[in-house]
Amino acid sequence: xxxxxxxxxxxxxxxxxxxxxxxxxxxxxIGTLLGKNVNQATVSQYTYVNDRIAVLLQNxxxxxxxxxxxxxxxxxxxxxxxxxxxxxxxxxxxELMLSYADLKYLETYVYxxxxxxxxxxxxxxxxxxxxxxxxxxxxxxxxxxxxxxIWTKDKVFGREGNYLFIGRFMRNMEFHHEPGMxxxxxxxxxxxxxxxxxxxxxxxxxILDTDRKLCYRTHKDSYEFSKKQQQRLRSKIxxxxxxxxxxxxxxxxxxxxxxxxxxxxxxxxAVTLIPDSIFHAVxxxxxxxxxGVYAVIAVVAVICSVYFSRRFTRPVTQIxxxxxxxxxxxxxxxxxxxxxxxxxxxxxxxNNMVKNIEQLVQEVKENERALRKSELSSLMYQINPHxxxxxxxxxxxxxxxxGEEVTMKMIQALSKFxxxxxxxxxxxxxxxxxxxxxxxxxxxQKIRNNDLFQYEISCEExxxxxxxxxxILQPLVENAIKHGFAKIYEDGRIWVHVCxxxxxxxxxxxxxxxxxxxxxxxxxxxxxxxxxSAVRCKTGIHRR
Length: 544
What we know:
This protein has helices at 6-73, 75-80, 88-99, 128-133, 136-140, 189-198, 227-237, 276-327, 342-402, 405-422, 431-448, 474-484, 518-525, 529-539; strands spanning 106-112, 118-120, 148-153, 162-170, 180-186, 204-208, 214-217, 243-247, 255-262, 269-275, 428-430, 453-459, 467-469, 492-501, 504-511, 542-543. The chain is of the alpha+beta class. Strands 2-1-5-4-3 form a 5-stranded antiparallel beta sheet. It starts with 5 loop residues before the first helix and ends with a strand.
């Protein structure tokens, strides 16, 4: 795998940071929502279980009610309720009929007619006094045609433990007589079968009697449920008429949500307790699944990020490499980018820049070669004046030997004129040299024009060393001679005066010849400020 560095690493850092933040936030959101939904689903699942228990309780109540009705409608029961005392045969028939009552988990029965006669199984023994003392008769209340489920200790037959007694008043359907009572004793197998059929392994299911006392429960060995806790549970359930969901924790380790539903006919209550461990197990399982999904997403995201970061940063890397090659002096660097983005513009600009710089380098090389050639020519040019000065000096000596004063004077003036004109290639000379140059020029013109004019030159002493552009006065003097003296033939006068006016150096050239035309004066006055500024910059003082 190629090493990740530069802009690609920065790109990956930003992408992975955003991905991590997105995954954390989404994980929190999804986890919260999923946890809530899972809790709701779990509660709904166990609500169904609890409802199933209530339905089974109702079915058992209906079954026992049907058995009680059949007993009531039997000829044996009805005969026993008449005023006469039943004989032994009738008693045996009645006991036999009750012995074969269609009830599961039937332990025994006791029937009392309206004459306080007891009908029992042959191997059972009790008395009417025990029956009255057991509280079963009081538990029937005022119910005329309704059976009662009574969960209580066996005080009738003296057996240990609690039993479900199903009782009802037995009334004669033809005559108004005192009613009798019939009680069936049912063992806890009826509740065990109900919970076995409806309950799940993890939940704690219970059945409470009419007083909210515990009749039967699952997981007896796994969870302790004290009398105090049962009392707290009864007080909570008592606040609801029918059904509800209690959210909270009681003093039972692992207890989370309590579901209950009271069966209206029997008054018994189906209760389901959902331990926290169930919610935790589901949460852990979902968390593992979620982490697994996120792990797969993270791996795929990292792979895709690396791939796309390379793809996105490849043009930038190409530009960087091309610039490094260009820094090394390689003008062959050329970018071929086809990204359909702004990088294509950068690539084209880089190619144009390299091309232009290459052309500039070539031009610089050509200029350097031309400069060297010019320097050589300048050197030769500097050599030639020496030869010219020597030649003029030789001609001057010959003229002097021959006594040619005019020739000598002209040669001398020309020599001075040439020295200032050449001045070793310098463009700036002192004012004194410039005045000497224009003086030599006027001497030559005097000889050429047969002393047509005379001249005067004046300059303040402190201004003679001020630098000034070379040959600035000669064109003006030439113009004065050529045009100013065009129509005179003698007594011409030229005055050259140099002075300082504040920060400006002033050159004044006057003649007594013909006046300058107005349009020429205007043209001179319209000289570009750039030309005047150039003069000021080179001389270091303002002048006109």
